[in-house]
Amino acid sequence: MNFDFGVLSEFTDNSKVTDINFNGTDLWIDHLDYGRSYHQEFMTHGEIMKLCEKLANAVNRPLNVQSPILEADLQSLRISIVHPSVSNKVSLSIRKSHHKLR
After folding, report:
1. By 3-state DSSP, what share of the chain in percent is helix, strand and coil, each rounded to 5?
2. Which of 70, 44, 41, 76 is nearest to 55 (CA)?
């Protein structure tokens, strides 16, 4: 399954990027050559929430007040999402695996 990560695609497609973390306001990228970099106000909360809902649909799992934490594998990525009902703003963490997940 190919998944379109939209504006995060430049990071998910980059083999040197190992981690992508959004804390509700700021985007942090871990890069093998450049270390961790900070992207202040990279996206609006609404854009990230739409991406998280799209991810939840892609793995056929709920992401809502009743199921506020989503952990999933997608392609070679490990996805963790915390719904804004728990943390005030949506939180998204993507960790890349060196091996394709089944």
Report:
1. 25, 35, 40
2. 70
d(CA 102, CA 17): 21
Strand ranges (E), 3-85: 17-22, 27-31, 35-39, 69-74, 77-82
Question: Looking at beta carbons, which pairs linking 16-19 to residues 24 or more positions away fall under 8 Å?
Answer: 17/96, 18/95, 18/96, 19/93, 19/94, 19/95, 19/96
pLDDT tens-digit profile of 27-83?
A: 999 999 999 999 866 667 788 889 999 999 999 999 999 999 999 998 889 999 999
| Global confidence as pTM | 0.87
DSSP helix/strand/coil, 91 = strand
Q: Is 56 helix (H, G, I), strand (E, B) or coil?
A: helix
21 close to 27: Cβ distance less than 8 angstroms: yes
User: Beta-carbon neighbour count of residue 70 at 10 Å?
Assistant: 19
